[in-house]
């Protein structure tokens, strides 16, 4: 268990999960120039979304919250909003004006990754790496996306859109991505149960 000293929030990532998150960010920040915090957070979500759609198993298995610019991992957002503590051995923040860019501190190590994992990251980089953070927010907010559906189900879509609120405590149910596929749902829930 790791502790974020900024708000004393207990963040429950085991070492293997934290290594996979850290090295995924190293990989992304090495291959995408000027990787902003918001763009990084969107790409991590997209990795999980595509991985779940493909086989029912999340890539990073993060919990995503329904925020105005979400879906977002609250723990990673907090860590990347100041000098990283959770990810301090992997990355550093570079501030240029009002933008925060993520830079790797170490070289990528593929110990936590299968060939399929690397293919998936490369696919996300190829398909979404040149998009702006704003474009990726629009993509994650598309009609019938998990973010959109969660906002509708909890009657907060208009509040988020008109910026009456910026965040909620609602978690996004990623299983809705595969609700039509019984086998993938079983794989997904078995994975969650064992992790």
User: Whole-Å distance between the termini?
Assistant: 14 Å
Order of helices and strands: EEHHEHEEHHHHEH
The largest beta-sheet arranges its strands as 1-2
What fraction, in percent, of the residue positions are helical? 40-55%
- Average pLDDT metric: 91
Strand segment count:
6
Shape: globular
Describe the structure.
- Helix 2 runs parallel beside helix 5.
- The protein is globular.
- 47% of the residues lie in helices and 13% in strands.
- It is built from eight helices and six strands, in the order E-E-H-H-E-H-E-E-H-H-H-H-E-H.
- With 195 residues, the chain is an alpha+beta fold.
Describe, in short, the structure shown.
The chain is an alpha+beta fold. It contains 8 helices and 6 strands, in the order E-E-H-H-E-H-E-E-H-H-H-H-E-H. Helix 2 packs parallel to helix 5.
Key descriptive features of the protein:
single chain; 195 residues; alpha+beta; two-stranded antiparallel sheet; two-stranded antiparallel ribbon; 6 strands; 47% helix; globular; disordered N terminus
List the helices and strands and how they pair.
Blueprint (H helix, E strand, L loop, with lengths): L1 E3 L4 E3 L3 H17 L5 H19 L9 E3 L6 H7 L10 E6 L2 E6 L10 H14 L4 H8 L5 H8 L3 H5 L5 E5 L10 H13 L1
Antiparallel strand pairs: 1-2, 3-6, 4-5
Helix pairs in contact: 2-4, 2-5
């Amino acid at each position: 268990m790791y502790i974020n000293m900024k708000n004393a929030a207990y963040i429950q990532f085991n070492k293997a999960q934290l290594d996979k998150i850290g090295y995924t960010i190293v990989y992304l920040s090495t291959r995408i120039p000027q990787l902003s915090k918001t763009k990084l957070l969107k790409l991590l979500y997209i990795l999980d979304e595509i991985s779940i759609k493909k086989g029912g198993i999340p890539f990073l298995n993060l919990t995503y919250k329904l925020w105005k610019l979400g879906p977002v991992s609250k723990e990673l957002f907090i860590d990347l909003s100041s000098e990283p503590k959770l990810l301090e051995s992997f990355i550093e923040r570079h501030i240029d004006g009002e933008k925060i860019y993520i830079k790797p501190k170490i070289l990528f190590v593929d110990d936590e990754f299968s060939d399929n994992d690397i293919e998936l990251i490369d696919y996300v980089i190829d398909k979404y790496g040149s998009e702006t953070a704003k474009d990726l927010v629009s993509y994650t907010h598309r009609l019938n996306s998990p973010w959109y559906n969660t906002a509708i189900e909890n009657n907060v879509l208009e509040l988020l859109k008109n910026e009456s609120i910026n965040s909620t405590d609602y978690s996004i149910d990623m299983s809705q991505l595969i609700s039509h596929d019984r086998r993938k749902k079983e794989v997904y829930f078995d994975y969650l149960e064992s992790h």
